[in-house]
Design goal:
The protein is α/β, with parallel strands linked by helices. It is 38% helix and 11% strand. The protein has one domain: Arginase, Chain A, CATH 3.40.800. Strand 5 (197-201), helix 8 and strand 6 (220-227) form a beta-alpha-beta unit. Helix 6 (131-154) packs across helix 7. The chain is globular and about 45 Å long. The protein starts with 8 loop residues before the first strand and ends in an 18-residue tail after the last helix.
């Protein structure tokens, strides 16, 4: 099946209706999405596997702007919620050379593995090289591979990290070493697990590496909703690009998302969706430039996941970016994403049954 590539469309900024997230909104959103017992029918055990690699440490110098600690805090918050069994948290295998090489150049993989990246390459990635960086990057890609395999048997799987969409075939960029979504999509095709795949990237930055790597892959549809004026400043061409003006808020974002999802499912009809649920469209994100509230991001997740469910598509979720001034805000957004996935796919992996959504979540 071949997809026609569409020119991107832009969402004009409308000043009216924008709202800043205040403490009361944050509390309300957090309480709403962490009070799972009121959902009644929701059973996370046996329906949602959470793949993590936060204990594979990527050493960073003090003051580095990448919030590496968010991954351990995310897992701790989910585990402390008592809504998941410890067995639901799974350490993934590292992505193999065979899997990585479907998406990346052999010479680039060798330079990463051997520590022979030059200074410019390291600067472009944004992380200092170390053996820990290599292992962490392999495990993060392995977690998205595992989440895809789990999704295709159980309906949904989650990588508690991932979303490294700026990594290109022969170079890393923007805190991304290996492109986990591209690696996983190509693996699912190679393993015969999925015929048609869509990558729905809701990180605030365009999935440029994903678009470039998968440009000539007709059965993998790439969709990116991102800030028009944000990084990367040299954009690639996805199958569908939605460019958002600085300051875009909840309602305008959600309208654009609904239009994009309609195109994705009309044009791609995917068996599997890889969803990059970036926390960085949040109004309090240091690198985001959009104006979504925590509630708006929760509505985004529910819209994407329930639409996938309604179309019978399995979903692998990756956390992607998040750089809020208060790291706990980023963690809260990621927690809400995971709990929303648990809620939508809450019936023991029976993907043909309707999602059990309560009135207050709609």
């Amino acid at each position: 099946m071949r997809f026609e590539r569409a020119a991107f469309f832009s969402l004009p900024f409308k000043g009216e209706g924008l709202r800043k997230t205040n403490l009361s909104v944050k509390r309300r959103a957090t309480q709403h999405y962490t009070n799972l017992p009121q959902w009644g029918a929701c059973r996370t055990r046996d329906t949602l596997k959470l793949f993590y690699a936060d204990h594979f440490v990527l050493p960073l110098p003090e003051g580095h702007r990448f919030p590496m600690v968010k991954y351990a805090r995310l897992r701790a918050r989910l585990l402390a919620s008592a809504l998941f069994h410890p067995d639901d948290f799974v350490v993934p295998d590292a992505a193999t050379d065979e899997a990585i090489l479907r998406a990346h150049d052999a010479a680039y993989l060798s330079r990463v593995a051997e520590g022979s990246l030059d200074a410019a390459e390291i600067r472009r990635i944004g992380f200092p090289w170390s053996p820990g960086m290599v292992e962490r990057s392999r495990r993060s890609a392995g977690a998205t591979l595992a989440a895809c395999r789990a999704a295709l048997t159980e309906g949904c799987g989650v990588n508690l990290a991932g979303g490294t969409h700026h990594a290109h075939r022969d170079f890393g960029s923007g805190f991304c070493v290996f492109n986990d979504a591209a690696i996983a999509a190509l693996a699912m095709r190679a393993e015969g697990r999925a015929r048609r795949i869509a990558i729905i990237d809701c990180d605030v930055h365009q999935g440029d590496g994903t678009a470039a790597i998968l440009r000539d892959k007709p059965d993998i549809f790439t969709c990116s909703l991102h800030g028009a004026k944000n990084f990367p400043f040299r954009k690639q061409t996805s199958d569908l690009d939605v460019e958002l003006a600085d300051g875009t808020g909840d309602e305008d974002y959600l309208k654009a998302l609904e239009l994009a999802l309609e195109q994705v499912f009309t044009r791609a009809a995917p068996d599997l969706v890889i969803y990059l649920a970036g926390a960085d469209p949040y109004s309090g994100d240091r690198l985001g430039r959009l104006d979504l509230s925590i509630e708006g991001l929760a509505r985004r997740d529910l819209t994407v996941l329930s639409t996938c469910r309604a179309h019978g598509s399995a979903v692998a979720v990756a956390m992607a970016g998040g750089y809020a001034s208060d790291i706990d805000d980023t963690v809260s957004i990621h927690v809400a994403t995971v709990l929303t996935a648990a809620r939508v796919f809450a019936d023991n992996g029976n993907r043909d049954a309707p999602a059990r959504l309560t009135t207050e979540s709609r």
